[in-house]
Amino acid sequence: MASSYTGLGVELMVTGENAGTWGTKTNTNLNILEQISGGYIEQAVNGTGATTLTVTDGGTGAALATRIIKLTGTITGNITVNIPIDVENFYFIENGTSGSFTVEFEYASGSGSSVTWSATDKGTKIINAKGNNAVNPDIVEIVVGGLPGGSTTQVQFNSSGAFAGDANLTWTAGTALQIDAEKELRLGDASGAEYVGLKAPATVGSAYTLTLPTATGTADQILTTNGSGVLSFVDNSGGTAWQAVSAAATINVASGNGYFLNTTGNIITATLPASPAIGDEISFVDYAGTFDTYNLTVARNGKNIQGAAADLTVATERAGFTLVFTDNTQGWLLKNN
Questions:
Q1: How many Å apart are CA 138 and CA 106, to the nearest integer?
Q2: Is the pTM of this model over 0.85?
Q3: For 140-157, what is each residue's pLDDT tens digit?
Q4: Which of 39, 165, 200, 288 has its CA 20 to 30 A from that of 208?
């Protein structure tokens, strides 16, 4: 009876065969086993299409019978690396190819699973070729530290040396990292003993985002919002953000601001916001003392002023006053005059 061979090329001799050559063949088998257990080889792959790894029955040096394989060469398209259906082994495989294309490691036939390096992944994977059956042989990646834990979108973390996930810590690609159930984002100090925590209130009326200022601001400024969650630093003047002197004939004014208006050459019409909220304030000052010559008109923009559906005309020299919004009945009221 003739010798047979394993899927990785080890010769299985039968009694009475190979008289006088058992020593040589046994040494070759031992070399193959050493190569399988810890050998390293660089395997050039085809630039496109498929590369099939093979064994040499009763011979050493085959990539397929080597534990550590580095795939080399320049690839110009997505490629596959195939192994025969009868191989069962695990490998350390490095994608040492150049070229931004995928590399898929698979069985030569069957419809089982495979392992793929992305176009930008030039790392090393631990791969188990299970060969569990001829129809659906599986090739799977062994993840160091265990397979990912938790469910889809959950952020992975180390839990006693294994991967774990938490339903309250999730990542949605292109959207946000979300921390639920009032859990905190904690920023620790240098010692790690103390921290500053940020968390949501128990109930949020509707979802919103706070956008941080684009710069640090200057000393004594305060942090304000534009009403849509965009934060900025403004001068600390009782909450009023004073604007540069304006002599424009028409100006749209915004809540929280103060305006120095110069009417030395023309009257000025200042149009109030269309959708103010209760407590919104806007201040006006006669910059040059000429409101009596060229008046200031405060256009109501659909809301009442002092309970009347009429614009406010200011003709008092050196007038300085603040309007505060109450509701749609009284509208804007004089806070001081």
A1: 8
A2: no
A3: 888 766 667 778 888 988
A4: 165
CB 296 within 8 A of CB 281: no
Give the Cα separation of 327 and 305 in Å (integer). 10
Q: Smallest Cα–Cα separation from 327: which of 282, 284, 275, 283?
A: 275
Which helix (H) or strand (E) covers residue 158, if one does?
strand 157-159
Nearest-angstrom CA–CA distance, 227 and 42:
62
SS3 31: helix
Q: How far apart are CA 176 and CA 156, in angstroms?
A: 15
Q: What's the CATH fold of domain 241-336?
A: Jelly Rolls (2.60.120)
* Residue recorded with tokens 């403004």: 234
**Residue 237 reports pLDDT greater than 60:** no
Residue range(s) in the chain whose domain bears CATH number 2.60.120.640: 241-336
Q: Determine contact, residues 104/116, Cβ cutoff 8 Å.
A: yes
